[in-house]
Amino acid sequence: MLRSLVGRHRPRVVLVAALVISGTLLAVDGGAQIEVARALGATLYAPIQALVQGAEEMVQLRRENRQLRRVVATLNLERMRLLQLRDERLQMQRLAGFAAERFPLLIPSEVVGRSTDPMQDMLQLACGSDDSVRVDMPVAAYGGLVGRLRQVTRDHALAEILTSPGLAVSCRDQRSGVIGILRSTRGDLLLDRVDAVEDVLVGDPLVTSGLGGVYPRGIPVGVVTRVENSLDGLFKRVEIRPYVDLGGLQEVFVVRRQVTWEDTALYGPDDRDVMGAATHTATANAGGR
Amino acid sequence: MTWLLGAGIAFSALALQATLVPHLRIAGIGPDLPLVATMLLAYRRGPTGGTLAGFVIGLGQDFTNPAFLGLNALVKSLLGFAAGSGRDALDVSNPPLAAAVLVVAKLAHDLAYLLVFTHLSLSDVFAGLFAHSVPSAVYTSAIGMWILVLLGSGRRGGHALGGPGYARR
Q: How many C-beta neighbours within 10 Å does residue A181 have?
């Protein structure tokens, strides 16, 4: 009886059931119910949204990759031009009897820790002797010099940074060629041993001088922020601001050894592939235009 | 298999609404694909199938806005029932008629939705209707009428989507 009644009025029965359920859901104001609905919604839509997000990221990455290839191709062309200039310069240096110019080889390393000892400002690096890293190798970042390695184990290394009181780096004023020793004194970075008569001005860039044999010549160090004569009038007090934000380092490069510009080990096989593809892309783009 | 296809249409409409429609918006107005799917299934399967389709699709939409859990399910169940009941009177193989059906359906849907949503505040209801529902109805019908024309009128021919549903009614 009931079955035949429901069968006869099936659409209306279904409608009433749907309305009752919807109305109940709408009327109940429960936090737990909302949480369940949210979880179900996330389960239902999360895979779709992940798929779409993945596709969007793919498009973005492809666009970025094209841009980067263009940039690399431009840099590669620029490098080739510089290499020509270098060859000319080397030829002149050879004629004049100068020493051959060297280029640093960089090993990237993640910064995994920092010393809490106020007397020694150290970074812990995730590289060690297994990566051909040795004590006294210089450490640099994108902006410039960071310091040098003090201790090396098989898979970790401790780097003493510029603000550490024990570190001294021979530096050269890039504008005037004046040489001094960079030290950290009571929290300030100072260029030591600069005579009062030397030509050092605020804003002068400072690079490593290469004297002493630890740091290669020409690594950017910092900029002169203040110059004043010392109390005895014999020396200048030159304050330096390092290029690298030493407090926020996440990745650094250990300068392993010096190679000549002609050394092909500067670029790995993968790098050469990327540069080849980039040059090809740039040539094709130029042809297309 | 018929129910599976119906579920596929419902799920596709919800998925496209969540992913594709945000990219199709013009001045913040987009088409209402779940409504088109409800109408399509109501036309294919009659009032029972239309009500169920409206309920499931509406509930799927409600999951994304749990603060009003059940509101879309309620409104779309009514819409599915109405469209399924009146499908013989309106032949949606005619594109202008299909467009008109979708416009009316969207406006009726939004009217019912807004009445509950605004707690019967008529000024808010009319503001919402004119600012959002009317342009969205036009957009929805522009896209949905072709879906309705192509897929909504094949029920009599024993199509996989609709034959049994129509027969059951």
A: 16
8 Å CB contact of B48 and A10: yes
What is the pLDDT confidence band of residue A107, given thresholds at 50, 70 and 90?
confident
Q: Name the residue type at position A48.
A: I
pTM comes to: 0.50
**Residues of chain A contacting residue B74, judged by C-beta atoms under 8 Å apart:** 18-19, 22-23, 26
Q: Which residue has the tokens 């690298």?
A: A244
Please check whether residue B77 is in contact with residue A18, taking contact to mean a CB–CB distance below 8 angstroms. Answer: yes
* Chain B residues near residue A27 by CB distance under 8 angstroms: 70
Q: Terminus-to-terminus CA distance in chain A, angstroms?
A: 81
Q: Nearest chain A residue to B45 by CA: give it.
A: A11
Of A15, A27, A48, the CB nearest to B51: A15
Of B68, B71, B89, residue with least CA distance to B79:
B71
What digits encode the pLDDT tens for the residues A202-230? Answer: 999 999 998 888 888 888 999 999 998 87
Please tell me the distance from the alpha carbon of residue A215 to that of residue A145, in angstroms, as a whole number.
9
Q: What would the pLDDT profile of A175-195 be if each residue is shown by its tens digit?
A: 999 999 998 887 789 998 888
Q: A92 CB near a chain B CB, below 8 Å?
A: no
**Of A190-199, A231-240, B146-155, the least confident:** B146-155
